[in-house]
Amino acid sequence: MDWTLILDKTILIVIIFVISLAIAAYSTYGERKIAAFLQDRIGPDRAGPFGLLQPLADGVKFFLKEEIIPSASDKFLFIIGPCIFMMTALMTSAIIPWGKPFHFGDHEFTLQVADLNVGILYLLAVVSIGGYGIMIGGWASNNKFALLGALRASSQMISYELSMGMAIIALLLVSQSLSIREIVEMQQGFHWNVFYQPVGFLIFLICAFAECNRAPFDLPESESELVGGYHTEYSSMKLGLFLFAEYINMFISSAIISCLFFGGYHFPGLDSLHMSPNIAATVSVLVLFAKIFFFIFFFMWVRWTLPRFRYDQLMRLGWKILIPLSIINVLATGAWLTFFK
Amino acid sequence: MNWVEMLYLPAIFSGMIITIRHLFKKPATVRYPEEKRYIAPVYRGLHVLKRNDKGQENCTACGLCAVSCPAEAITIEAAERQKGEEHLYKKEKYASLYEINMLRCIFCGICEEACPEDAIYLTDRILPSNYNRNNFIYGKDLLVEGIKPEERIDIGMRKKHYEMDEKQGV
Asked: Is residue A301 less than 8 Å (CB to CB) from chain B?
């Protein structure tokens, strides 16, 4: 084993870990601010300038809160639930290409933890495991609201994973590769997949909302019906882990949407600028993050626009509309590739 | 519904446009302790028991305010002014106890209208919250304004011109 490789990957993993957590923390702040602005309010502005220290205050509060484990709960599963959710949320970031490689002399520093040739399969697998975190957490709480939330979460995730997979299959037909880096490289210039797969993008986007349990698909934790949903019984940092993991999920799914459909770290004219490789790499990272931030904003924007679905509407949309639509999309893409290319 | 409406996407899109427009609107928030809302001259807030220019309490414990009070929030006990207290009370009779139950008070301002002695006024101050019901019964310690000029509470806004003229005997 090459030591530089291990060192490279360790550094990269630590950086991505820190960035994910920082973005998750500041997403909570961003969420509250954007919610406030969209509702003609100001939002948090007491902790630090413009309330910028609010996430820090929230974090400290989470750590200082009393840790309550319900006596009727299954303690082991109760603790393992948020851990699984958080772990899977962080694991998905491994396959995302964050930018062009940096060059230090002869050494090439790739900004991707693992360039798996089955990257998308890995993604789907890890996202599915994430559902277990919610299910186990809700089940172990021994609370009817938590159980209902967990049931909803699991059925919602299973329903929407299908059409998400179908949308990705159509994308794979176009890109002919499962590696996310290759998919990104193919979208060089302005050949973004969203122009070739608009329906697929729409399905993927809707499913991403459902997988992240974000409004309008936030039935697992619908406050008005289920108290707190699957995390009703959770307190202190275990609740913090659930909430954090949700924001990390949002961050990662924004990154994946940008990579799969919006050219990842490419933007039109990146290669015609003739920058030195390291500057080009920096710019590419910034471009990817700009896209990610746009999608995070989009997630929040949608949350404060659309009301929550009713449960039967959710199932109807998933099974009767999105799945047939995604199958038609796969067939149409296949036909297009066979007869017109 | 035609098929375009069935898609829901145009409706979602127009909804998104509406919310994004609010991003650029001015927030309606008033940051309370730093900024204060405009309070109209006719605003009826916390009561004050006035003193006259010499620092004597105007209230003579006639009880008209307590009688007129529709919420029966006012309790008055009268007492006779003793020798040596002339600098404190305007007339021979004064209120030894004057309590307003702020939880009963409806801030209608009828006590103010009933008062013949220019003693009680409603001000633009806001009744503060409290943890204890007993603390909402305001006695003379909280109602009567201070003697020093800087402790006086301005009620110029509430005094109507005809009222001031009338009471000054014009």
From this structure: yes
